[in-house]
Model the fold of this input.
Amino acid sequence: MLSHETIWHALDALAERHKLTPSGLARRAGLDPTAFNKSKRHGPDGRLRWPSTESIAKVLEATGASVEQFLSYIPSSRSGLPEGSFPSQTGTIPLLRFAQASAGGFFDEGGFPAGQGWDVVEFPASPARKAGVYALEVQGDSMMPLYRDGDVLIVEPGAQVRRGDRVVVKTRDGEVMTKILMRQTARAIELHSLNPEHPQRNLELADVEWVAHIIWASQ
Done:
């Protein structure tokens, strides 16, 4: 079962396999040494922070581990861990195709799901219970090489975002885009594209309706 706890458990197990601390594993992967610290796994408000797919890819490259090896570290219900440590049930969250996201009526002014026309997708119960979490299905190749057609992005509106986070941004003109947050000030926001063929974007905050954090990608 993929959940916030099991993914972090797998990263810890991979670090231990290579005789590294979580900080050492992050450093070897070229990440911020504090990226995998236990204190970074929840936000100040208690919200879950998930390791990005990009971070996991860098870890696998740095350690030489395969995806299958990484998944083997994810505990099952018979792993000997305390009962209830890893939720076995799933919940459902709203699902929207990315091409529909720019149409009106699907989000409220805070970026939370609203209106009709949403489908649903199953997701581990812990994040699924969080208010407002939803999924966007990628369509086309504009987000390659990180996200491909058919990938599902799990999005948490209202979550704290910081430099380097992958985010979904909606402008007041109705444009919806997936970018990397590089810098945000009281007046402007700087966004880098996932696809190197697409330009960077610098927007005035007055032109931005909302920014939501991508917490996971199902690939």
